[in-house]
Design goal:
mainly alpha; single chain; 294 residues
Length: 294
Protein backbone atom coordinates (compact mmCIF):
# COMPACT_ATOMS: atom_id res chain seq x y z
CA UNK A 1 0.00 0.00 0.00
CA UNK A 2 1.22 3.48 -0.80
CA UNK A 3 2.46 5.41 2.19
CA UNK A 4 1.76 9.02 3.01
CA UNK A 5 4.17 11.73 1.92
CA UNK A 6 6.58 9.09 0.63
CA UNK A 7 7.40 7.88 4.17
CA UNK A 8 7.52 4.24 5.12
CA UNK A 9 4.28 4.02 7.12
CA UNK A 10 0.89 5.44 7.96
CA UNK A 11 0.30 8.79 9.59
CA UNK A 12 -1.88 11.89 9.69
CA UNK A 13 -1.52 12.63 5.97
CA UNK A 14 -3.85 10.92 3.46
CA UNK A 15 -2.59 7.90 1.55
CA UNK A 16 -4.09 6.10 -1.43
CA UNK A 17 -6.09 2.97 -0.70
CA UNK A 18 -5.20 -0.16 -2.67
CA UNK A 19 -8.05 -2.48 -1.68
CA UNK A 20 -10.00 -1.44 -4.77
CA UNK A 21 -7.89 -1.37 -7.93
CA UNK A 22 -8.58 -1.55 -11.68
CA UNK A 23 -10.70 -4.65 -11.14
CA UNK A 24 -13.09 -2.78 -8.88
CA UNK A 25 -13.17 0.05 -11.42
CA UNK A 26 -13.95 -2.59 -14.07
CA UNK A 27 -17.09 -3.55 -12.17
CA UNK A 28 -18.34 0.03 -12.15
CA UNK A 29 -17.42 0.48 -15.82
CA UNK A 30 -18.84 -2.78 -17.17
CA UNK A 31 -21.85 -2.84 -14.86
CA UNK A 32 -22.71 0.80 -15.50
CA UNK A 33 -22.34 0.70 -19.29
CA UNK A 34 -24.04 -2.71 -19.51
CA UNK A 35 -27.08 -1.82 -17.41
CA UNK A 36 -27.34 1.53 -19.20
CA UNK A 37 -27.30 -0.27 -22.55
CA UNK A 38 -30.01 -2.68 -21.37
CA UNK A 39 -32.23 0.23 -20.32
CA UNK A 40 -31.64 2.18 -23.54
CA UNK A 41 -32.23 -0.90 -25.69
CA UNK A 42 -35.48 -1.70 -23.89
CA UNK A 43 -36.82 1.84 -24.33
CA UNK A 44 -35.89 2.30 -27.98
CA UNK A 45 -36.00 -1.33 -29.09
CA UNK A 46 -39.56 -1.81 -27.85
CA UNK A 47 -40.78 1.44 -29.41
CA UNK A 48 -39.15 0.84 -32.79
CA UNK A 49 -40.53 -2.07 -34.83
CA UNK A 50 -37.51 -1.98 -37.10
CA UNK A 51 -35.20 -2.72 -34.18
CA UNK A 52 -36.84 -6.01 -33.17
CA UNK A 53 -34.23 -8.09 -35.01
CA UNK A 54 -31.31 -6.30 -33.35
CA UNK A 55 -32.82 -6.19 -29.86
CA UNK A 56 -31.72 -9.69 -28.70
CA UNK A 57 -28.14 -8.96 -29.71
CA UNK A 58 -28.17 -5.60 -27.94
CA UNK A 59 -29.46 -7.28 -24.79
CA UNK A 60 -26.79 -9.95 -25.09
CA UNK A 61 -24.10 -7.29 -25.40
CA UNK A 62 -25.46 -5.42 -22.38
CA UNK A 63 -25.56 -8.58 -20.26
CA UNK A 64 -22.03 -9.42 -21.38
CA UNK A 65 -20.79 -6.03 -20.16
CA UNK A 66 -22.48 -6.53 -16.80
CA UNK A 67 -21.01 -10.03 -16.59
CA UNK A 68 -17.56 -8.71 -17.45
CA UNK A 69 -17.81 -6.20 -14.63
CA UNK A 70 -18.82 -8.90 -12.16
CA UNK A 71 -15.96 -11.07 -13.42
CA UNK A 72 -13.57 -8.27 -12.48
CA UNK A 73 -14.89 -8.37 -8.91
CA UNK A 74 -14.51 -12.15 -8.85
CA UNK A 75 -10.88 -11.82 -9.96
CA UNK A 76 -10.24 -9.22 -7.26
CA UNK A 77 -11.44 -11.51 -4.47
CA UNK A 78 -8.57 -13.95 -5.09
CA UNK A 79 -10.27 -17.11 -3.84
CA UNK A 80 -13.18 -17.98 -6.17
CA UNK A 81 -15.32 -19.67 -3.51
CA UNK A 82 -15.18 -16.57 -1.33
CA UNK A 83 -17.27 -14.80 -4.01
CA UNK A 84 -20.30 -16.57 -2.51
CA UNK A 85 -19.89 -14.45 0.61
CA UNK A 86 -21.13 -11.44 -1.33
CA UNK A 87 -24.69 -12.79 -1.05
CA UNK A 88 -24.64 -13.18 2.74
CA UNK A 89 -25.21 -9.60 3.88
CA UNK A 90 -27.99 -7.90 1.87
CA UNK A 91 -29.34 -6.06 4.91
CA UNK A 92 -26.34 -3.74 5.13
CA UNK A 93 -24.20 -4.24 1.99
CA UNK A 94 -24.97 -2.60 -1.34
CA UNK A 95 -22.52 -5.00 -2.95
CA UNK A 96 -24.63 -7.91 -1.70
CA UNK A 97 -27.75 -6.24 -3.07
CA UNK A 98 -26.00 -5.71 -6.41
CA UNK A 99 -25.14 -9.42 -6.55
CA UNK A 100 -28.68 -10.51 -5.69
CA UNK A 101 -30.17 -8.21 -8.34
CA UNK A 102 -27.70 -9.65 -10.86
CA UNK A 103 -29.01 -13.16 -10.11
CA UNK A 104 -32.41 -11.98 -11.35
CA UNK A 105 -31.14 -9.70 -14.12
CA UNK A 106 -29.45 -12.40 -16.20
CA UNK A 107 -32.38 -14.87 -16.44
CA UNK A 108 -34.86 -12.05 -17.14
CA UNK A 109 -32.56 -10.74 -19.86
CA UNK A 110 -32.27 -14.19 -21.42
CA UNK A 111 -36.05 -14.59 -21.39
CA UNK A 112 -36.40 -11.19 -23.08
CA UNK A 113 -33.86 -12.26 -25.71
CA UNK A 114 -35.93 -15.37 -26.46
CA UNK A 115 -38.77 -13.14 -27.62
CA UNK A 116 -40.89 -12.85 -24.50
CA UNK A 117 -40.82 -9.12 -25.04
CA UNK A 118 -44.26 -8.26 -23.67
CA UNK A 119 -43.35 -8.61 -20.02
CA UNK A 120 -39.80 -9.81 -19.53
CA UNK A 121 -38.20 -6.92 -21.40
CA UNK A 122 -39.57 -4.45 -18.86
CA UNK A 123 -38.79 -6.72 -15.93
CA UNK A 124 -35.20 -6.81 -17.19
CA UNK A 125 -35.14 -3.03 -17.64
CA UNK A 126 -36.42 -2.51 -14.10
CA UNK A 127 -33.79 -4.88 -12.72
CA UNK A 128 -31.11 -3.04 -14.73
CA UNK A 129 -32.21 0.22 -13.05
CA UNK A 130 -32.05 -1.51 -9.65
CA UNK A 131 -28.60 -2.94 -10.44
CA UNK A 132 -27.27 0.48 -11.45
CA UNK A 133 -28.76 2.07 -8.34
CA UNK A 134 -27.15 -0.53 -6.06
CA UNK A 135 -23.84 0.12 -7.77
CA UNK A 136 -24.20 3.87 -7.33
CA UNK A 137 -24.61 3.43 -3.56
CA UNK A 138 -21.42 1.40 -3.08
CA UNK A 139 -18.84 4.19 -3.19
CA UNK A 140 -20.53 6.54 -0.67
CA UNK A 141 -20.75 3.60 1.74
CA UNK A 142 -16.93 3.82 2.11
CA UNK A 143 -16.98 6.79 4.44
CA UNK A 144 -13.21 6.95 4.88
CA UNK A 145 -12.54 8.09 1.28
CA UNK A 146 -13.39 11.81 0.89
CA UNK A 147 -13.74 11.56 -2.91
CA UNK A 148 -16.38 8.84 -2.50
CA UNK A 149 -18.23 10.25 0.49
CA UNK A 150 -20.51 13.00 -0.97
CA UNK A 151 -24.05 11.94 -1.75
CA UNK A 152 -23.66 13.51 -5.20
CA UNK A 153 -21.57 10.44 -6.08
CA UNK A 154 -24.81 8.42 -6.13
CA UNK A 155 -26.29 10.58 -8.87
CA UNK A 156 -22.93 10.84 -10.63
CA UNK A 157 -22.43 7.07 -10.93
CA UNK A 158 -26.08 6.47 -11.85
CA UNK A 159 -26.27 9.15 -14.55
CA UNK A 160 -22.84 8.17 -15.89
CA UNK A 161 -24.01 4.56 -16.30
CA UNK A 162 -27.06 5.71 -18.26
CA UNK A 163 -24.88 8.00 -20.39
CA UNK A 164 -22.36 5.25 -21.11
CA UNK A 165 -25.13 2.83 -22.06
CA UNK A 166 -26.76 5.35 -24.38
CA UNK A 167 -23.33 6.11 -25.86
CA UNK A 168 -22.68 2.42 -26.52
CA UNK A 169 -26.13 2.17 -28.13
CA UNK A 170 -25.20 5.02 -30.49
CA UNK A 171 -21.83 3.43 -31.23
CA UNK A 172 -23.50 0.12 -32.08
CA UNK A 173 -25.87 2.07 -34.31
CA UNK A 174 -23.33 1.57 -37.08
CA UNK A 175 -24.54 -2.05 -36.98
CA UNK A 176 -28.21 -1.98 -35.89
CA UNK A 177 -28.97 1.34 -37.67
CA UNK A 178 -31.82 2.17 -35.26
CA UNK A 179 -30.61 5.67 -34.41
CA UNK A 180 -33.09 8.50 -34.66
CA UNK A 181 -33.64 11.96 -33.29
CA UNK A 182 -35.14 10.70 -30.01
CA UNK A 183 -32.14 8.66 -28.91
CA UNK A 184 -29.73 11.38 -30.04
CA UNK A 185 -31.67 13.93 -28.00
CA UNK A 186 -31.62 11.63 -24.97
CA UNK A 187 -27.86 11.17 -25.32
CA UNK A 188 -27.31 14.93 -25.44
CA UNK A 189 -29.51 15.50 -22.38
CA UNK A 190 -27.74 12.76 -20.42
CA UNK A 191 -24.34 14.19 -21.30
CA UNK A 192 -25.39 17.64 -20.07
CA UNK A 193 -27.02 16.22 -16.94
CA UNK A 194 -23.84 14.28 -16.14
CA UNK A 195 -21.80 17.46 -16.47
CA UNK A 196 -24.11 19.34 -14.09
CA UNK A 197 -23.94 16.54 -11.52
CA UNK A 198 -20.15 16.46 -11.87
CA UNK A 199 -19.91 20.21 -11.20
CA UNK A 200 -22.12 19.91 -8.12
CA UNK A 201 -20.01 16.99 -6.91
CA UNK A 202 -16.72 18.86 -7.37
CA UNK A 203 -18.02 21.97 -5.61
CA UNK A 204 -19.07 19.82 -2.65
CA UNK A 205 -15.96 17.65 -2.37
CA UNK A 206 -13.10 19.95 -3.37
CA UNK A 207 -12.21 21.24 0.11
CA UNK A 208 -11.81 17.75 1.59
CA UNK A 209 -9.60 16.23 -1.12
CA UNK A 210 -5.95 15.31 -0.81
CA UNK A 211 -3.80 17.31 -3.29
CA UNK A 212 -3.10 14.32 -5.54
CA UNK A 213 -6.76 13.33 -5.54
CA UNK A 214 -7.71 16.87 -6.55
CA UNK A 215 -5.19 16.82 -9.41
CA UNK A 216 -6.53 13.48 -10.67
CA UNK A 217 -10.13 14.70 -10.59
CA UNK A 218 -9.16 17.96 -12.31
CA UNK A 219 -7.74 15.96 -15.23
CA UNK A 220 -10.85 13.77 -15.35
CA UNK A 221 -13.05 16.87 -15.19
CA UNK A 222 -11.36 18.51 -18.18
CA UNK A 223 -11.75 15.30 -20.15
CA UNK A 224 -15.39 15.06 -19.11
CA UNK A 225 -16.03 18.66 -20.18
CA UNK A 226 -14.29 18.63 -23.56
CA UNK A 227 -14.39 15.02 -24.78
CA UNK A 228 -17.45 13.86 -22.86
CA UNK A 229 -19.73 16.91 -23.07
CA UNK A 230 -18.92 19.72 -25.50
CA UNK A 231 -17.74 17.49 -28.35
CA UNK A 232 -20.61 14.96 -28.31
CA UNK A 233 -23.29 17.64 -27.91
CA UNK A 234 -21.94 19.60 -30.89
CA UNK A 235 -21.61 16.46 -33.00
CA UNK A 236 -25.11 15.27 -32.08
CA UNK A 237 -26.57 18.67 -32.91
CA UNK A 238 -24.78 18.62 -36.27
CA UNK A 239 -25.88 15.07 -36.98
CA UNK A 240 -29.52 15.57 -36.02
CA UNK A 241 -29.94 18.94 -37.71
CA UNK A 242 -27.96 18.73 -40.93
CA UNK A 243 -27.34 15.11 -41.91
CA UNK A 244 -29.13 11.84 -42.50
CA UNK A 245 -28.44 8.25 -43.43
CA UNK A 246 -24.94 6.85 -43.09
CA UNK A 247 -23.38 10.22 -42.24
CA UNK A 248 -25.79 10.68 -39.34
CA UNK A 249 -25.03 7.18 -38.06
CA UNK A 250 -21.31 7.86 -38.16
CA UNK A 251 -21.64 11.17 -36.31
CA UNK A 252 -23.92 9.60 -33.71
CA UNK A 253 -21.46 6.72 -33.22
CA UNK A 254 -18.57 9.14 -32.76
CA UNK A 255 -20.53 11.19 -30.23
CA UNK A 256 -21.56 8.04 -28.38
CA UNK A 257 -17.98 6.80 -28.23
CA UNK A 258 -16.82 10.14 -26.81
CA UNK A 259 -19.57 10.18 -24.18
CA UNK A 260 -18.88 6.60 -23.12
CA UNK A 261 -15.08 6.98 -23.09
CA UNK A 262 -15.20 10.07 -20.88
CA UNK A 263 -17.48 8.25 -18.43
CA UNK A 264 -15.19 5.22 -18.32
CA UNK A 265 -12.12 7.41 -17.72
CA UNK A 266 -13.88 9.41 -15.00
CA UNK A 267 -15.01 6.31 -13.09
CA UNK A 268 -11.57 4.73 -13.36
CA UNK A 269 -10.01 7.90 -11.93
CA UNK A 270 -12.62 8.16 -9.18
CA UNK A 271 -12.20 4.55 -8.03
CA UNK A 272 -8.40 4.33 -8.28
CA UNK A 273 -6.40 7.55 -8.61
CA UNK A 274 -8.63 9.80 -6.47
CA UNK A 275 -9.15 7.22 -3.73
CA UNK A 276 -7.08 8.80 -0.95
CA UNK A 277 -8.34 8.38 2.59
CA UNK A 278 -8.47 11.25 5.06
CA UNK A 279 -5.54 10.09 7.19
CA UNK A 280 -5.47 9.93 10.96
CA UNK A 281 -6.79 12.77 13.08
CA UNK A 282 -4.09 13.11 15.78
CA UNK A 283 -5.15 15.70 18.35
CA UNK A 284 -2.01 15.08 20.46
CA UNK A 285 1.33 13.98 19.06
CA UNK A 286 3.64 12.29 21.60
CA UNK A 287 7.13 13.73 21.96
CA UNK A 288 9.94 11.35 22.82
CA UNK A 289 11.42 12.06 26.26
CA UNK A 290 8.49 14.21 27.41
CA UNK A 291 6.45 13.08 30.41
CA UNK A 292 2.77 12.40 29.70
CA UNK A 293 0.45 14.67 31.74
CA UNK A 294 -1.60 11.57 32.55
Amino acid sequence: MSSNSGAGGFGPNPWQQTSWDWRAAGNFIGGGAGSGLLITSAVFGASNPGGAAALPWLLLFGLALVGLGLLCVWLEIGRPLRALHVFFNPRTSWMSREGLVALLLFPSGLLAMLGLVGGWLWVMAGLAVAFLYCQSRMLPAARGIPAWRPRQVIALVFVTGLTEGCGVYLLLGLWHKQVGGAVMLLAALLVLLRLVVWMLYRRNVDASLAPRASVALNVAGRRLLIVGSILPVLVLALGAGFTSGAIQLMLAAFAGACAAFAGVAMKYTLVTRASFNQGFALTKIPVRGARSPH
